[in-house]
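Reopening closed ticket. The problem is back. First fold of the pair:
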Amino acid sequence: MSLRNIIKYRNVWMCVAIAWTVFMHGNFRVNSETLNIIKSIGFAGVDIFLFASGIGCFYSLEKDSDCFRFIKRRIIRIIPTYWIFMIAWSAYKRSFSGMAFLTILGNFLCVRNFTGLGEDFNWYISAMWLTYFLAPFFKGVLDRINTTYMVLLFTVFLGLLSVCFWDSYTFIITMTSLPIFFLGMYVGK
């Protein structure tokens, strides 16, 4: 199977990645050693999803490179569903765990992860918006570099940037998502 055919089915592997991540977070026991191993490494589903998102963002920016329209399309596509989920989840968190209103608001606005104040129960959404805001810049980088060697050097540079955030769990997982997303964009190219 060619790379083009694999990319053509990226929505399928994005669904598998989501299911794998949900399986990892599930609060249930599995009586299979193989399934327990698969469950224990379910965080890789997030990496697969980020990689596939990078491919999709590259294609989207190839069709229309206007940064504002790109972000607007992402907002229209994601925020309404996210807010519906957040209303239900926030009501649950407020009722059963007494989560503070500012914590809920920060998560609702997708910025709690960047405050360093903790209780950011959806770090991924903040990381996702960071990758979306950087996608036009990453595409510009990819348009200017012509060799795989330079792409790998830039990817290593992005990985090294995450070292600056080593003392913060949420920042380190956010920053380490950037090289994966960038490589997805490269594969899209």
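Second fold of the pair, where the issue appears:
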Amino acid sequence: KKAINMGDPYKMVLLNIIVSTILIIAVTLYVFVYPKKKVNLLFLLFLISILPIISIFREGTYESGDLTQHSAILSSFYESLREGNIIPQWAGKLCGGFGCPVHMFEYPLPYHIGSFYNFLGFSALNSINLLIASSYIISGIGMYLWAKEEFGKIPGFTAALLYLFASFH
């Protein structure tokens, strides 16, 4: 018998279906076991927001327009931070080894956060992946907190879900 070789995209779809099913079953069981307790919508939103970012953490990298450039910029940014530059401006190893002022034109906060992940021991590519994942989750939570104040809990939760699963993400 031949073993069925399931490609990587099919594995990710299957993994997402399994994790989504487990999440639905867990929430349903929680509602039936504790009928008087309300489901914490912020925690549920956090769990739901993990579903789309599962594919980011597969082995290797995914297709992105400038992901490799951002990881190279992050490496240069981190090296500049290690040299003592709190606000790096010059990327000494980029642009064919001659250096260039790329850090003057990029937003520094994402690279500071990515450098923190890099400091914790993650590679530049994994640091970028963690940055993408954490900003995705935090953006959904921020949308929920804002919309909850404006419209209420359920509309805020709905707005956060629509925001997280909008096509531009």
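Update: turned out to be a display glitch only; the data is intact. The two ends are 42 Å apart (CA to CA). Confidence is low (pLDDT under 50) at residues 1-6. Please close again.
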